[in-house]
Design goal:
With 331 residues, the chain is of the alpha/beta class. It is built from 16 helices and 12 strands. The strands form 3 sheets. It has a 4-stranded parallel β-sheet, with helices on both faces. Strand 3, helix 5 and strand 4 form a beta-alpha-beta unit. The radius of gyration is 20 Å and the shape is globular. About 2% of the residues have low confidence. It binds 1,3-dihydroxyacetonephosphate and iron/sulfur cluster (SF4).
């Protein structure tokens, strides 16, 4: 019995167990610990509302990487997924980088294993490699440029037209970029399950109910969604579009966490999440990985300074090159 208790305690200390702890005011404690430890809390727009609310900075993938690179805080707590925290660690290796749940991965990053991608790259020796930031450090180390959905077109346009390119891991974003840039990039066959979950059939029904709504979509969505979208952009692009648009009603095809900021920015506008194929309680598409971060895990992670992200120094040395190229081109 004692051994089981000890084992549980040790797992809890490492932040791996989510045992109920009654009487703790998580928001108050998180704020206190952040101050005591000089920690910065970075959160992506797909995080739960409560985490976005207490974060020091909320942004899209590019803005979060830029913030992680320049912060003077002693510690970075990343309320996002693994590849985001890993990128922060690569950019700012002397800081402790914490991720509330180490299992917060990404289906898109998982769709591109390093050994298979390395073989693919070897089959196309004349191509240079542009990868979406949603990939592992190993894939970044095999890349010439990293990009996000906010700067992908700019980065691809900076490469001479005659240079053949492999784009990985997102085939939907890659296909969209091929159309936008007039290129024929070779696409890796990866995708994000959250952005492939939208139902065209249900979307048509929703349109019948709201014929005055404007569809806006993240470029990780499938081609048939993008074809009918009035605006396509990254999470920050979508937020800016709604803020600056004269329209009053929007159907938003991306992860539903974005609605928190969008509704706060536009209390006078009607914002509807695009429906998912599967029937679920939110009638929207949510990223199970992003939603692994809870207030409790955030509190435990700050308290115990675990789990922390470590990246092998040799790997980081290779992976930082394409990330820095991206940051340089995004100034
Ligand atoms: P952006 O915030 O850069 O648009 O990325 C969306 C996403 O899927 C993050 O995982
Ligand atoms: Fe990955 Fe898609 Fe989740 Fe973003 S929304 S973290 S791309 S699975």
């Amino acid at each position: 019995m004692k051994t089981l208790e000890n084992a549980k305690k040790s797992l809890e200390t490492k932040g791996y167990l989510d045992i109920e702890t009654p009487g703790i005011e998580y928001i108050k404690e998180i704020k206190k610990l952040k101050k005591e430890k000089n920690a910065i809390l970075l959160a992506h727009y797909y995080q739960i509302d409560e985490i976005q609310e207490i974060a020091d900075f909320v942004g899209d993938s590019l803005a979060l990487a830029q913030e992680a690179a320049k912060t003077n805080a002693a510690m970075i707590v990343f309320a996002g997924v693994h590849f985001m925290a890993e990128t922060a660690k690569i950019l700012n290796p002397t800081k402790k980088v914490l991720l509330p749940d180490l299992l917060a991965g990404c289906s898109l990053a998982d769709s591109c294993p390093a050994d298979k991608f390395s073989d693919f790259k070897k089959q196309h020796p004349n191509h240079i490699v542009v990868t979406y930031i949603n990939c592992s450090a190993e894939i970044k180390a095999l890349s010439d440029y990293v990009c996000t959905s906010s700067n992908a077109k700019k980065i691809i346009d900076s490469i001479p037209k005659e240079q053949p390119i492999i784009f990985a891991p997102d085939k939907n974003l890659g296909d969209y970029l091929n159309k936008e840039t007039g290129r024929e990039m070779l696409l890796w066959d990866g995708a994000c399950m959250v952005h492939e979950a939208f139902s065209m059939e249900k979307l048509i029904d929703l349109y019948k109910e709201h014929p005055d709504a404007v569809l806006i979509a993240h470029p990780e969505s499938e081609a048939h969604m993008l074809k009918v979208a009035k605006y396509i952009g990254s999470t920050s692009g979508l937020l800016n579009y709604v803020k600056n648009s004269e329209h009053k009603k929007f159907i938003v095809a991306t992860e539903a966490g974005i609605l928190f900021q969008m509704m706060q920015d536009n209390p006078d506008k009607h914002i509807i999440p695009a429906p998912a194929k599967e029937d679920n309680t939110c009638a929207c598409s949510e990223c199970a990985y992003m939603k692994m971060n809870t207030l409790k895990k955030l509190y435990l992670c700050l308290k115990h300074e675990l789990p922390s992200i470590e990246v092998d120094a040799e790997l980081a040395k290779k992976a930082i090159v394409p990330i820095e190229r991206m940051l340089e081109l995004s100034k």
